[in-house]
Amino acid sequence: MDRKQFVAPGRTTGAAAIDGKRPARAGAARTKTIPWQIGPFVRPANGQPILRPDKQAMFRDPITQEPVCWKYSHVFNPGAIAWNGKLYVLFRAEDTTGRGIGQYTSRLGLAESADGRDFTALPRPVFYPQPGRWEKYEWPGGCEDPRIVQSDDDTFILTYTMWDHKIARLGVATSRDLIHWKRHGPVFRKAFGGRFVDLWTKSGAIVTQRVGDRIIAAKINGKYWMYWHADDQTLLAHSEDLLHWSPVLDTAGKLRLVLPKNKPGYFDSRLTEPGPPALLTPEGIVLFYNGMSGGHIKRGPKIPPRRYSAGQALFAGNDPAHLIQRPVQPFFRPQESWEKTGQYKAGDTFIEGLAWFQDKWFLFYGGADTEVGMAMAKG
C-alpha cells in the first residue's frame, strides 16, 4: 500500500463566501486549496448547531412497550440527502438509558428544510429497534450513524450501525419515502459463508456520483463499491445489488486496507473512518473521512490527542482501492466551543452527511457526539 503523504500544488485561500456573503465562521482558518477537493466548507454565520437534544420528545418503544424520551441526551452523526425540493437530515438520537458513550439506545430521527437553513424534526423516530428477525443485532444499543444514498430507481439505501452493546455490525435498509424502512440485515452476513458477520464493522460510505441534482450510487467496473471501517482503519467492499456486500481481500485472503491510519504526527494517525458517501468525480473518487489524532501534530494545525478532524482522500476512478493522494492536513476540524466539548470530551466534527442542494454542497456532522452541525461549499 502506497502511504506516501503529499499535498498537490494549489493556492492559499481564506474563508469562502456563500452566495456573495462572507460567513463569520470558516471551516479552516487558512488552508490549501487542492484542485480535486470539494470545498472549502464554511459554517453558517452564527456557527451554531442546526439540531439539538429535545428533552420533551416522547416515543413508545415497541420492544419495552414503555414511553421513552428518545432524543433526550444527544443528537449527532447525521446522514443527509436532497429530495423533492427539500433537504433531509437523518440523525442519530440517544435516550436516557445510558451512562457513557455507546451505552444508550440510539434511534434515527428525520429533519427537513426547504431553504437549507432552518430544520424541523419529526416528533417520532423513523428508524429504531423493533421486535423480529434483526432485534438480536440492534438491542439494546440501537441503530447508529446513518449514511444515505439513492439508487438509480430512486430507492433510498441506508447503511447504519447495528449495536447490541457487544459487537457493532454494519447493516443496510431501504425505503421509498425516508419514513418507512425495510431492513436487510448485516451487509456481510452472506459473504464468504458468513465469515465476517461477527466482525466489528461500521461506517459504510457507498461510492456515488452527482447526476443533475441527484446523488446516486455509482457502478464502477460493473459493481457498486463501499468504503467501510474496522480495526481503526478503512477498507473496501463491492456489491451487485447495494444490499449484499463482499469485503475486498488481498492476495493472502485478508481484508485489504485502502486507507490505513497515518504515521505519528498527523491528524489521522490513530484512526481513519469513512464519512459521507464517497463521490465519483472526473478526477477520481473523493473519499470524505474522519481521522483521529494520536498525539503531537508535526504538520498543520495543532490538534489535541484523540480529537477527530475530517480529511479528503483521492482514489482512482477506475480502481476504488488505488489511493492517489492523501493530503497531510484536515479540511475541517473542531473550532466552535460546542464542537470541542460535549459527550465526546476530546472534541470532534464527525462528518457523515453530504448533499447537493440549491447549487451548493451541504456537509453535516456531529459536534462532540452531542449536537448536529452544518457547513456549506459552492458547487
Q: Could you explain how this protein is built, in words?
A:
By secondary structure, the chain is mainly β. It has one domain (38-378): Glycosyl hydrolase domain, family 43 (Tachylectin-2, Chain A), CATH 2.115.10. It is 2% helix and 44% strand. It is built from two helices and 27 strands. Strands 13, 14, 15, 16, 17, 18, 19, 20, 21, 22, 23 and 24 form a twelve-stranded mixed sheet that branches. It has a four-stranded antiparallel sheet with strand order 5-6-7-8, with no helix packed on it. A hairpin with a 6-residue loop joins strand 3 (58-60) and strand 4. It starts with 10 loop residues before the first strand and ends with a strand.
Question: Short description, anyone?
Answer:
The protein is mostly beta strands.
**What is the fourth-level CATH superfamily?**
Glycosyl hydrolase domain, family 43
Secondary structure class reads mainly beta
Query: What CATH first level would be assigned?
Result: Mainly Beta
CATH architecture: 5 Propeller
Low-confidence stretches: 1-31
- Domain count: the total is 1
End-to-end gap: 32 Å
Helix content: under 10%
Mean pLDDT over the full residue set: 91
Number of helices: 2
Series of H and E elements? EEEEEEEEHEEEEEEEEEEEEEEEEHEEE
